């Protein structure tokens, strides 16, 4: 294909005027669905997962999505796009999305949808949003994006070829994601089986064999970014402070919020807040490593109370039993868990590397296919 067959046109030249979406909150029920940025950035996409409008627009026709409409995120996951490829229930697009309607006499919607995922598109977009306090882009800037435009019949050929290649790419990515999920399931299953084997030993309530308590919480405003010691809350490190309240390594159970029941091992000389319940063995007969490994395998759901704000209390934990196995059995259990974790982490690292290679291959395919001969020369 000669370079004279291609041209570069702006989005404003190949699409109708860009349009901002409808402003309302999401609802679980309703008559009109509300497509949001979060819906198009978390694959796999399904219309069933899209919420409804809390308040429908007075003129819904103005915002209703149609086949081959393309929406682009203007804030947050800036630049991410989604093309409507088939009919669905009535749906409008939210205010953080910008809709463009391709002029089908100039550009194939499938071709434009693929361009909006290409390196050429992203290289133009990034400088437009650089330097903003909150990364965003507006309709005027989007309209200036240049698109390499071959003749329509060539666009359709490119789309057919790319859809086949990228279909294989997505199938491979799906298989890799399944490996990742299966690895987690396998780990859980193996640890559950190993934990069940410990039931032959006598058990005691965790509140009898361990000191179980909530430490003092530090207000966020009192955290010191230059503090010498790390501060840990419900979900890991939340800052630093000039003092520590635990000199040694400790096992904790998240006791407030959606992640209640999560078990963590906190490093020495740390401040642990009251969003985590410290579970510290009273004697050396119970290893902290064993305790952490065993508690990680326990289903904590029965010990969680509260609906609006899930929590675990010391009273709840009185029903939690811990096997008092001989020291050598505890060490063997910890060693096996460690070996298992290392093996699965290595597998997951290989999967992640393969996914990165897939993404690089996809970008290369899009660049080669959606660029004029003049650009590649």
Descriptive report:
- This protein is an alpha+beta fold and 377 residues long.
- It contains ten helices and 19 strands.
Low-confidence parts, pLDDT < 50 over ≥5 residues? Answer: none
Q: Could you tell me how far the N terminus lies from the C terminus, measured between alpha carbons in angstroms?
A: 12 Å
The number of distinct helices, counting runs of at least 4 residues, comes to 10
Structural class: alpha+beta
Give the CA-based shape: elongated
CATH class category name of the largest domain: Alpha Beta
Strand content: 15-25%
Order of helices and strands: EHEEEHEEEEEHHHEHEHEEEEEEEHEHH
Largest sheet properties:
4 strands, antiparallel
Could you estimate the helical fraction of the residues in percent? 25-40%
Radius of gyration: 27 Å
Could you say how many structural domains there are in total? 3
CATH topology of the largest domain: Adenine-n6-DNA-methyltransferase TaqI, Chain A, domain 2
Please give the order of strands in the largest beta sheet.
2-9-6-7
**How confident is the prediction overall: mean pLDDT?**
88
Mind telling me which CATH architecture of the largest domain this is?
Alpha-Beta Complex
List the helices and strands and how they pair.
Blueprint: E1 7-10, H1 11-14, E2 19-20, E3 26-27, E4 33-35, H2 37-40, E5 52-53, E6 70-73, E7 81-83, E8 91-93, E9 97-100, H3 109-115, H4 119-129, H5 139-143, E10 146-149, H6 152-196, E11 203-205, H7 206-209, E12 210-213, E13 229-233, E14 236-241, E15 250-254, E16 263-266, E17 271-272, E18 276-281, H8 288-297, E19 321-323, H9 327-369, H10 373-376
Parallel strand pairs: 4-8, 13-17
Antiparallel strand pairs: 1-10, 2-9, 3-5, 6-7, 6-9, 11-19, 12-18, 13-14, 15-16, 15-18
Helix pairs in contact: 6-9
